[in-house]
Design goal:
The structure holds 2 protein chains of 2 kinds. Chain A is mostly beta strands. Chain A has strands at 4-7, 10-13, 19-25, 31-37, 43-51, 54-57, 64-66, 76-78, 87-94, 104-105, 109-113. The model of chain A has no long low-confidence stretch (mean pLDDT 92). By secondary structure, chain B is mainly beta. Chain B is 0% helix and 50% strand. In chain B, strands 2, 5, 6, 10, 11 and 12 form a 6-stranded mixed beta sheet that branches. Chain B has a 4-stranded antiparallel beta sheet with strand order 3-9-8-7, with no helix packed on it. A two-stranded antiparallel ribbon of chain B has the order 1-4. The termini of chain B are far apart. The chains are: A mainly beta, B mainly beta.
């Protein structure tokens, strides 16, 4: 299993541009999450999904959109990039089965908006 | 709302020293508690977890006990190694479907 994969690893955007951060997991996990990590800070939840077709807002959803058309994929869309969205973005997934609450994280996408 | 507070870093120790990283939380109900570790340039990895009061999570010589009376989940290790140098995050999860709420992280530096 590859686990959770994210693309791209790095990206520089100009203010006002749009992009999609890709996230794929091959563990057949129901739950998927997007977090952002700002320097010197913990991760903050942007959006999450409990299964295909179901998404919900986290703590910091403004400026982002998500969709979940398949179990495997959970892309994050930035429509009008702003400097405040400069951050490292992590995708995570976990199984909905059993008592294990472990979230598995991808390697991250480092985004700079200038 | 829910929150996690952990000690500020960086924490610098010599190899074989005893480690404690403090973590306290505020939450309603009975959250699950976690310690994650992040090595340079990598994503987060689960280090240990506890899902109910008085549970002790342990892994790779690290351990933490879920203390509901003090709302704490302090991370300890008896003898640290240079390879333990990383950023450590304390986190809570209110319910199984929720995302994690993280502390700001503690940067640990172990000197040989």
């Amino acid at each position: 299993n590859a686990g959770v994969t994210q693309t791209p690893k790095f990206r520089i955007l100009k203010i006002g541009q749009s992009m999609t951060l890709q996230c794929t997991q091959d563990m057949n996990h129901n739950y998927m999450y997007w977090y952002r990590q700002d320097p010197g800070m913990g991760l903050k939840l942007i959006y999450y999904s409990v299964g295909a077709g179901i998404t919900d807002k986290g703590e910091v959803p403004n400026g982002y959109n998500v969709s979940r058309s398949t179990t495997e994929d959970f892309p994050l869309r930035l429509e009008l990039a702003a400097p405040s969205q400069t951050s490292v973005y992590f995708c995570a997934s976990r199984s909905g089965q059993g008592a294990s609450y472990e979230q598995y994280f991808g390697p991250g996408t480092r985004l700079t908006v200038t | 709302g829910d929150s996690v507070t952990q000690m500020e870093g960086p924490v610098t120790l010599s190899e074989e020293a005893f480690l404690t990283i403090n973590c306290t939380y505020t939450a309603t109900g009975y959250p699950s508690l976690f310690w994650y570790v992040q090595y340079p340039g990598e994503g987060l990895q689960l280090l240990l977890k506890a899902t109910k009061a008085d549970d002790k999570g342990s892994n790779k010589g690290f351990e933490a006990t879920y203390r509901k009376e003090t709302t704490s989940f302090h991370l300890e290790k008896g003898s640290v190694q240079v390879s333990d140098s990383a950023v450590y995050f304390c986190a809570l999860q209110p319910r199984a479907s929720d995302g994690l709420t993280f502390g700001k992280g503690t940067h640990l530096i172990i000197q040989p």
